[in-house]
Design brief:
6-stranded antiparallel barrel; alpha+beta; globular; 2 domains
């Protein structure tokens, strides 16, 4: 049976064109990735070494110093000024997954819009995308809007 299987596989591959084979071969990894992302466990996983990111994690850290990594040996400190609920059509949404962090840089200059590894004494290392909230860059924010 093994020889029969290999013969049939060889015949299929010979009769198929390269494009059909590549399309078929490309579908398997895409299907596996889609299944992994759709699983309930995948929605709540946290990368190794990173803290879970939710509203209640940040509330006790208001006033604390966070360090935004700019390179291997360069970081910029910022104070977590506020943890605010999101507002939609004037209505506040106060959930664990929908909130806004407002940081004030503690050193001269601003923190440009970008993704950073951010370190905190209790929370550990967290990946955040921040953007300036004013023209001078005195305040930057990270927005979390998870359904």
């Amino acid at each position: 049976m093994d020889a029969t299987f290999h013969a049939a596989l060889g015949k299929f591959l010979m009769s198929s064109n390269r494009r059909a084979f590549l399309q078929f071969a490309g579908l398997a990894p895409a299907a596996a990735a889609t299944a992994a992302l759709a699983s309930p466990a995948a929605k709540h996983t946290v990368a190794a070494g990173e803290a879970p990111v939710n509203r209640s994690s940040f509330l006790p850290c208001v006033g604390d110093e966070f360090h935004f990594e700019f390179g291997p040996h360069e970081s910029k400190p910022a104070k977590l000024a506020r943890v605010e609920p999101l507002q939609v059509s004037g209505r506040k949404i106060e959930t664990e997954g929908n909130f806004r962090l407002v940081f004030e840089p503690l050193s001269p200059g601003s923190i440009p819009q970008d993704s950073y590894a951010v370190n905190h004494v209790r929370l550990g290392r967290i990946a955040l995308f921040v953007s300036p909230n004013d023209a001078q860059g005195r305040v930057v924010e990270a927005v979390f809007n998870r359904v």
